[in-house]
Amino acid sequence: MHAYFVKCEEVIRNTDGSIKELHCTYDPETRSGSGFNARKPNGNIHFVEASTAIPAKFNLFEPLMVDSDGDRKLEDRLNPNSWNTLHGFVEFSLKDTLPEEKFQFVRTGYFSADYDTKKGNLVFNRTVELKSSYK
């Protein structure tokens, strides 16, 4: 967001095959949000700066029941994906997050900081997906 189109021109690798450097160029006319709309990017990558990122836990919730068919046993109607936990990283600016604070994480959804959130233990609960695939 609010960035330029960037193109990777060359990948420099270490002797073990891991990536050492990326040589890239950017198009200075393509800054997002600047009114440029002559072409669209093939995709967007959103990232968190690795040297300042802080770990967080994300609870992703879906409906508890897959349907309301009263003829089926309750345990057969439970959604196995009703609660998934992922671990990732957030921007350093969230280090002092307090329980119940609300955030929109880009392209993911709206989250509320869990009651277990405290400095050094960030826990976010997804309250609304931006794009739901649940049927």
Q: Would you write up a description of this structure?
A:
The chain is mostly beta strands. It has 2 domains: 45 residues, no CATH class; 76 residues, Ribosomal Protein L25, Chain P (Beta Barrel), CATH 2.40.240.10. 3% of the residues lie in helices and 38% in strands. The chain is built from 1 helix and 7 strands. The strands form 2 sheets. It has a 5-stranded mixed β-sheet, with no helix packed on it. The protein has a two-stranded antiparallel ribbon with strand order 1-2. A hairpin with a 3-residue loop joins strand 5 and strand 6. The longest helix is centred in the middle third of the chain and has 4 residues. It is extended, with a radius of gyration of 20 Å. The model has no long low-confidence stretch (mean pLDDT 88).
What does the largest sheet look like?
A: 5 strands, mixed
Helix content: under 10%
Number of helices: 1
CATH architecture of the largest domain: Beta Barrel
Q: Residue ranges: pLDDT <50 for 5 or more in a row?
A: none
Q: C-alpha Rg, in Å?
A: 20 Å
List the helices and strands and how they pair.
Blueprint: E1 5-13, E2 19-27, E3 54-61, H1 74-77, E4 83-90, E5 102-105, E6 109-113, E7 122-129
Primary descriptors:
135 residues, extended, mainly beta, two-stranded antiparallel ribbon, 5-stranded mixed β-sheet
